[in-house]
Amino acid sequence: MGLGDEKKEGEASGETSDRENRLSRMNSESSLSPTEDDEEDEERKPELGPMIALKEQLEKDKDDESLRRWKEQLIGVVDFEDVGETPDPVVKILHLTVRSPDREEMVLTIPEDGVPNPKGPWFTIKEGSKYTLVFNFRVTNNIVSGLRYNNTVWKTGVKVDSTKAMLGTFSPQAEPYQHIMPEETTPSGIFARGSYSARTKFVDDDNKCYLEINYTFDIRKNWQ
């Protein structure tokens, strides 16, 4: 959330035109100013070849023992019951958990309609408390590459926090995966207490979104 310091250019030589000076200043300012594309991770990516269904890849050369072992080293042992005929992976976020040493775990189930609690905050957390977020999710049909967690928080319409974390690449399997985020501490004080709005997204390397959920939460003096 820091602001970049604007730095003035030194005087140009007599041979440098005013037009070149203006272009130089424009390039300098644009390099310091963040854009919406930067915040939404919409940078251009190299075009890759067509995706192939995982089942088709696994069945190729299946009689070759050395190739089979090599594929297992790359992607692990895959449950064929969770592999489909299409190349697109399926990621289902089962629930989010808030862990804190000060209280029992809060398990937040993801609603089907994407609205956790339209009448109030999804959860309340105590100010100045340590907590850890835990994600439980299941992957089927194909490998998901570069699954990421993006979270943005606002208070009274002002963005106060933005978190982006790489979860990893995952193969289809029957058992859910679990990812534990680093421990954090909630802010404290009269200005920290109150209601917040947030948007959480889970996307992959292709910017395919598997969950986008908007919700509110409170920071209070005590747990509720």
Please outline what is shown here.
Helix content is 16%, strand content 38%.
Characterize the structure shown:
With 224 residues, the chain is α+β, with helices and mostly antiparallel strands. Helix content is 16%, strand content 38%. The chain is built from four helices and ten strands; from the N terminus they run ααααββββββββββ. It has helices at 18-32, 36-39, 54-59, 65-75, and strands spanning 90-100, 103-109, 123-126, 130-140, 144-155, 158-170, 177-180, 184-185, 194-203, 209-220. The strands form two sheets. Strands 1, 2, 4, 7 and 8 form a five-stranded antiparallel beta sheet that branches. It has a five-stranded mixed beta sheet with strand order 3-10-9-5-6, with no helix packed on it. β5 (144-155) and β6 form a beta hairpin. The longest helix has 15 residues, at 18-32. The protein is elongated, with a radius of gyration of 23 Å. It starts with 17 loop residues before the first helix and ends with a strand.
